[in-house]
Write a structure and sequence with these properties.
33% strand; alpha+beta; 107 residues; 5-stranded antiparallel sheet
Length: 107
């Protein structure tokens, strides 16, 4: 399970950066099990970027809306292929969906 924020992603997309930034990872979820670490702010106040979702089930994800469109075809318990990018590294993982808040918690 991952969490995102509409405002953060809208600002990111306005700057020409496609995808959905991971801001939180649910403990015990498949996302946590594969070692995804969310974006955070360091003790020095610097942003440490987290992974960015760029595709799901082989479909490009450039906005939250596109990600939700893919998720609309699935239910909790389904497995989806998620492509992340972090520091120019492409990571592809199969993740099981868990129930969550439609505002951006897990799904």
């Amino acid at each position: 399970g991952i969490r995102w924020d509409w405002r953060v992603n809208a600002a990111m997309n306005r700057r020409g950066l496609p995808g959905v930034m991971v801001l939180d990872v649910a403990p015990g979820s498949d996302a946590a099990e594969v070692g995804l670490e969310p974006a955070r702010i360091s003790a020095a106040g610097q942003v440490r970027w987290g992974p960015v979702v760029t595709a799901m089930d082989g479909l490009p994800v450039t906005t939250v809306e596109e990600m939700l469109a893919v998720l609309d075809d699935h239910l909790p318990g389904d497995t989806v292929e998620v492509t992340f990018e972090k520091r120019n590294e492409k990571i592809v993982r199969e993740l099981r969906l868990i129930p969550g808040d439609p505002a951006g918690i897990e799904r």
